[in-house]
# Entry
Amino acid sequence: MLTRWSQYFLNTLREDPKDSESISHKLMVRAGLVRRVGSGTYAYLPFGLRALQKVMAIIREEMNRAGAQELFLPAMTPVELWKATGRYDIMGDVLVRFKDRTGKEVVLAPTHEEVITELAKEARSHKQLPVILYQIQTKFRDEPRPRFGVIRTKEFLMKDAYSFDSSWEGLGKSYDAMYAAYQRIFSRAGLKVLACEADSGAMGGDVSHEFMAPSEAGEDRIAHCVSCGYAANLEAAKCLPPEPNPKSAQPEPMKEVQTPGQHTVEQVSRFLNVTPAQIIKTLIYEADSEVIAVLVRGDHEVNEAKLARVLKAKALRLASASTIQRVSGAPVGFAGPVGLNGAKLVADPAAAAVVNAVAGANKAETHALNVNIGRDAKPELIADVRFVTDQDVCPKCKAKLELIKAIEVGHVFKLGTRYSEALGALVQDASGGSQPMIMGCYGIGVNRVLASAIEQLNDKDGLRWPRSLAPFDAIITIMETGNQDMAKAGTDLAEKLAGSGLEVLLDDRQQSPGSKLKDADLVGIPVQVIFGKTWLAGGQVEIRSRSSRDKLTVEVPQAEGAVRKLLDTPPSL
# Structure
């Protein structure tokens, strides 16, 4: 297909947008892929839509190859379904809700577990399973802080798939099929992606993996072991308990010390001349209807996702100042593990191992010295409830971990029966009885795949598309459009390449040669063919790889072969 730039709605910008925070946001605006319409909403222009359609084509091919069947679900969904599963309250203000003219409340779906489960009831027997259904559709989430261009928006495209099985073994096979399909999708899109252990969060289920694209624009952080390849989202990354230290000091008698105005770990460690690792923080939570005191080391942070899993809590929040005063007898900042009243004590292993720790004394302006967990306070539970740090080791091979920023581009979940039980999606089993369907769900952020590819494949001059996502295969630049012979030669080659199946953009605009070359670099089309000085001097064209910067100078009849040769070279990450 041949497209003439002079007739194409593609306008590039020289300056970065004022509100840009990431490389992909800057380049998608400057290279004419998108334009901001409102907070968290973007329009895809023709150039950007072509790339987005390439992503969707790869996804469709791999979903179909894995045996999934495409359908299309409505964005407007009945509020009753969300209330039946409990997610109306769990997702809260993120749900975009409105009332229609009859006063009935409607939810614009941020995902479609409820709707697809309701439809799956049409399967009556285990003989009709397994089945995997998927769609590519617009989703809506009222994000409080849209960021990074199309990476975090209020309206976005998602590929969401749902598997229905009659056995847990069947769910495992469906999950593995989708996991493998995701690996192929991201590889074909030219992305470097790490498959990470993850927390299921509001989705439910007990097994999930996130596919994370390393990027400085990422809002997620992952723990990655360069030795064995272990990777996990920080919410799920496991922390090994500390090794016993035979040289540690002996426990000393506990005593109190006045610490006026010293509330934070930094203040207390400086005031008492101890390291943060020698301090035990006591944080008071309310888990459902129970008050929980959580102990972590001063240099660690409570991982609320882990804590909720350990406690099997549906609702978890930091306690109010009045609750803290009631259970500790002290104002905020001075709670400690010794002598709490009416709170269940949960200790992280690293905190429990500190010998002669500093902790709040449950008195105003006072801390306790030489606190030893087990002697002075006995936790009801010792469990990993903290975030991993770069000082931790890999839980699999004990090599050093690195913490990386990344963009979540995909997430797969073993949901189990959470939704099928809530909505009554039952099938007849082999014995004639009924059982809930066993579900999995599998999502890909289509816009994020595109943005992540741009984050990973760019340079100081602009985009560096992999061919699989590139809006065009080649751009032919006519440097002197006023030269009729040059313009005809360039057009003839463009038509020849297009006729051979390549997607070609012909830059026939009446602009300066320098601005054309800059634009060609900015929009990042994989191969550039230049009709300029070499053509005037001897009828040759210069052919460049946008990614590697390799150059060839060939006669026009050999141009097609040279273009195809450079197209076969993928851009390096």
